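sorry to bug you again but im stuck and you know this stuff better than me. below you get a single protein, a line of residues and a line of whole numbers that encode the local backbone shape. mainly i need to know what kind of three dimensional shape the backbone takes. anything you notice is useful, everything is just below:

***
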Amino acid sequence: MVNLCFHSCPHCMRIKPVFENFVASHGDRHDIEFGIIDCDQNEDFCKKHPRDNCPSVLVFKDHKNPQKYTECPYELDWTQSNLDSCLALQVDL
């Protein structure tokens, strides 16, 4: 599960602590990896994974097939509940 963001985006900076708390609350899960990717510094990765909104949270099926992913429904004000729902999408990939 990856949070794609831009350091210069105020909406991205608003989700960052929510996402970090979400990751901390799922720290005991060894079946899932989490990350935050700053698209200002990782343009190539972000161009390979087009998204409709910023910030975007993507759920990847696995490392072997990075093209198989889904974008979580966009929320203006992300919450732990939104991210839990998004994490459930991984099961359906």
About this structure: The chain has three helices and four strands. Helices lie at 10-25, 43-48, 80-92.
